[in-house]
UniProtKB/TrEMBL annotation:
All residue ranges annotated as the Helicase ATP-binding domain in the record: 22-182
CDD domains referenced in this protein's UniProt entry, alphabetically: DEXHc_HrpB, SF2_C_RHA
A molecular function GO annotation: helicase activity
Alphabetical list of InterPro entries matching this protein: DEAD/DEAH_box_helicase_dom, DEAH_win-hel_dom, Helicase_ATP-bd, Helicase_C-like, HrpB, HrpB_DEXH, P-loop_NTPase, RNA_helicase_ATP-dep_HrpB_C
Name the record gives this protein: Helicase ATP-dependent domain protein
Organism: Treponema saccharophilum DSM 2985
A Pfam cross-reference name: Helicase_C
Length: 809
């Protein structure tokens, strides 16, 4: 087939007819397309599919800017305006018409289409682009689509990815893999860990016109510098109005980008046009970066997050500077909070980033880390590390909250799934595993379950929704469009606004209500219901807040945004949700002083506490509960108790008595069974514990099989001890041990035994200093004893050193 001239020279073009034929002939109507950088898959394949497939095509792009760029480029190739054959739909923005056959949509849009029409009537093919990013929306859409395709035998699916291990998704779909080469010019990669001073010196002594600036403070990356080669300054023209010497710098996030921009502007002034490519930047400014660089304009330096890694082609880039770091969110299930971490990027990301420098001509990539640094092969799928509340609510709408009912490419963690379901129940979005009317309404608003729950509180709550949304820092026009969109959706969903809600923010963030516990010189510390503490950068902050944006941190979190709550309103809201527990425990002073209290609390936030009288039963129950928590070692004990347990363990090991071993191992867990009957009154001591142990472990049998003293063949009775040893093969062993002055064992020709185990003899001099350790007494008499006699006779002349008497001769 003859394709438009704009795509005829792309590496993928010779393969387009074959790709489309493979798709149409595929047994499961699906293929996985793996294409190298600059192959042209995102623009050329949609053009080809429009020629081979009669119906409408939905194309999923993970990023807004990429969706607009691809739709615009396809329209340009077709010689049309955007919104005719090729269009796009984003949140709050759309360009399409009845004639649109290729609609490029962002992730949430595709999920919404599937929920509204699970069979996707009128859609002939789905294209999922940049699947290697493994966003949670893409994984969810794939799971939904797999069910849809089991019913629709005329729906086709193309999963596209940059070069990666595609086998798992191909096996999941039962699809063939089609691999396409790209057009990538050589990229010279330089690893460098120089300091700023070293780097400046190297550049100053070279012919480079280099740009140098300090970068973010991080334990793994101290400094960042840009060192574009002078050769890159030679302009390669595409026509007469474009230049190719743009420097693309990858940084973790907007904070590092902003600081880098400030430092660069101070150092180079008007020497370059410094631009920011980040999701927080208005779409109009992002579009400018994707336009060719006029030949008479200053050189461009683009400071970007990971947004420029794939999908987008930034014109004129010949130099890439890669900080080697990325910003990732990780959800902490135990805390119910997300932690933003700056971590090393994967090698897959590093390859994608450096590849940006070689799209149009040979380029240079600077990696600001050592070539020997260990890095993961690819990033972890988002479904394994993110808050799943939106996903679980989508699944509830789909028809299940059972994690096992959907066929996942990568199953979400059960703990995170359960935490999300628990939050949705608190928000009133699901009940008994089914989506509620409120949950349906929340989902229809196109915002998170938290913000949706707030929005349903009425017009007065929309100010809070805006403050917590991604549009909080946007222009007035964007903010107005966002709020108008929510108002329209609320009107359509038919859900009546919640009445008499004094604090709407609590409807979306019930787990983020927090109380001040400490005021410092420059921050105030708050405690959350989960028990987590977080700091707000203000002195003497209000007593009650709702933290709408908080980073869980490592030991203490950081509150980025919050809403102050009146104390009366907070306590009134808590009163309907407060729990009351009677707690009987012990003060941590080792004196076993019991205290009984009634505690009113909201999670870990204690509202009120009062002491109440305790009984003997309370004491016994508290002892057993504390032992279960803190272990057997918490109980009062003495040498007799320790000795008895060691002897009991000795018997269990030598007899292979698993019942006795389990009893010893589970003493803390089973304390209510063996200890409680022996606790009388409101005190406990070591004697009480020992009596209970002897009853529980059959003390008479222990005393019989592992006695505390033995009678020697010479008639003497001596105490023995039991000690732990590690055998040469690593096995743990308990052995009976006898320390005895050597003259006191005269007349004993064989090693005494306890329960069949030879006693380890520590033979001492008259001054009780060690002479020999043995468990072979016969061998000792016939061996080392003669030498000991010779040595000791002069040192202790009053004692018997007649080896013949000792040896029985």
């Amino acid at each position: 087939m003859n394709y438009p001239v704009e795509i005829q020279n792309l590496p993928i073009t010779p393969f387009l007819d074959g790709i489309c034929a493979s798709l149409l002939k595929s047994k499961n109507r699906a293929i996985v397309l793996s294409a190298e950088t600059a192959a042209g898959k995102s623009t050329a394949l949609p053009v080809a599919l429009l020629s081979h497939i009669k119906g409408k095509i939905l194309m999923l792009e993970p990023r807004r800017l990429a969706a607009v760029a691809i739709a615009s480029r396809v329209a340009e190739i077709l010689g049309e305006d955007v919104g005719q054959t090729a269009g796009y739909t984003l949140h709050l923005e759309s360009k399409k018409s009845k004639a649109t056959r290729l609609e490029v949509v962002t992730e949430a849009i595709l999920t919404r289409r599937l929920q509204a029409d699970p069979l996707l009537e009128g859609i002939s093919a789905i294209v999922i682009d940049e699947f290697h990013e493994r966003s949670v929306h893409a994984d969810l859409a794939l799971a939904f689509l797999k069910e849809t395709m089991e019913i629709r035998n005329d729906l086709f699916l193309v999963v596209m990815s940059a070069t990666m291990n595609c086998r798992s998704v191909a096996d999941y779909l039962g699809a063939d893999i089609v691999e396409i080469p790209g057009r990538r010019f050589p990229v010279d990669i330089e690893y460098t860990t120089e300091s700023v001073e070293q780097c400046v010196s190297r550049i100053a002594n070279s012919d480079d016109h280099s740009l140098v600036y300090p970068q973010f403070d991080h334990k793994n990356v101290d400094k960042l510098w840009i060192t574009p080669k002078n050769s890159v300054n030679s302009v390669e023209k595409s026509g007469k109005n474009a230049r190719y010497d743009t420097i693309l710098v990858f940084l973790p996030g907007i904070g590092e980008i902003t600081r880098a921009k400030r430092d660069l502007e101070e150092k180079i002034g008007n020497g370059a046009e410094i631009m920011i490519l980040h999701s927080s930047v208005p779409l109009s400014e992002q579009k400018k970066i994707l336009s060719p660089v006029p030949a008479d304009s200053p050189r461009r330096i683009i400071l970007s997050s990971a947004i420029a890694e794939t999908s987008l082609t930034v014109p004129g880039v010949t130099t890439v500077v890669d900080s080697g770091m990325c910003r990732t969110s990780r959800f902490d299930v135990a805390l119910g909070m997300t932690r933003l971490v700056t971590e090393r990027e994967s090698m897959f990301s590093a390859e994608q980033r450096s590849g940006r420098a070689g799209r149009t001509m040979p380029g240079k990539a600077y990696r600001l880390w050592s070539a020997s640094d260990a890095r993961t092969e690819s990033a972890q799928p988002e479904i394994l590390r993110t808050d799943l509340s939106q996903l679980v609510l989508e699944c509830a709408k789909w028809g299940t909250t059972d994690i096992g009912k959907l066929d996942w490419l990568t199953p979400p963690p059960e703990s995170a799934w359960n935490a999300a379901a628990s939050l949705l129940e608190k928000l009133g979005c699901i009940e008994n595993g089914k989506i509620t009317q409120k949950g349906e309404a929340v989902l229809s608003l196109g915002i998170s379950p938290r913000l949706g729950s707030i929005a349903l509180c009425g017009e007065g709550a929309l100010k809070t929704v805006l403050a917590c949304s991604e549009f909080a820092g946007a222009g007035a026009e964007k903010q107005l469009a966002f709020l108008d969109d929510i108002r329209r959706r609320i009107a359509r969903c038919g859900f009546h606004a919640l009445k008499n809600v004094r604090v709407p923010v609590l409807e979306g963030f019930p787990d983020r209500l927090s109380r001040r516990i400490e005021s410092g010189a420059d921050s105030t510390t708050y405690q959350f219901p989960s028990g987590r503490k977080a700091e707000l950068k203000t002195t003497n902050g209000p007593e009650w807040i709702v933290a709408t944006d908080v980073d869980a941190g490592t030991s203490t979190g950081r509150i980025r945004a919050c809403e102050e709550i009146d104390g009366k309103d907070a306590l009134e809201w808590i009163s309907a949700r407060m729990e009351r527990d009677v707690v009987v425990d012990f003060a941590d002073d080792g004196k076993f002083r019991m205290q009984k209290r009634e505690i009113s609390h909201y999670g870990e936030i204690i509202i009120k506490e009062r002491k109440i009288p305790a009984t003997a039963d309370d004491f016994a129950a508290a002892v057993c509960t504390t032992v279960e928590k803190k272990g057997f070692g918490w109980l009062p004990s003495d040498e007799k108790t320790d000795d008895f347990l060691l002897r009991a363990e000795f018997v269990a090991i030598e007899d292979g008595n698993s019942v006795l071993s389990e009893k010893i191992e589970n003493l803390a867990r089973d304390s209510a069974e063996w200890l409680r009957p022996f606790i009388t009154g409101t005190s406990i001591d070591g004697r009480m514990v020992l009596d209970a142990l002897k009853y529980h472990l059959d003390g008479s049998a222990i005393d019989r099989d592992a006695p505390r003293e033995i009678k020697l063949p010479n008639g003497r009775t001596r105490k023995i001890s039991y000690e732990r040893f590690t055998e040469k093969d690593g096995r743990k062993k308990i052995r009976p041990v006898l320390e005895i002055v050597i003259q006191q064992i005269f007349g004993c020709f064989e090693t005494p035994r306890v329960h069949g185990v030879p006693v380890l003899l520590r033979l001492l001099s008259p001054a009780r200093r060690p002479l020999q350790i043995t468990d072979d007494l016969g061998g000792f008499w016939n061996g080392a004893w003669l030498d000991i006699c010779k040595e000791m006779r002069g040192r202790y002349p009053k004692h018997n050193w007649d080896y013949r008497v000792a040896g029985g001769e």
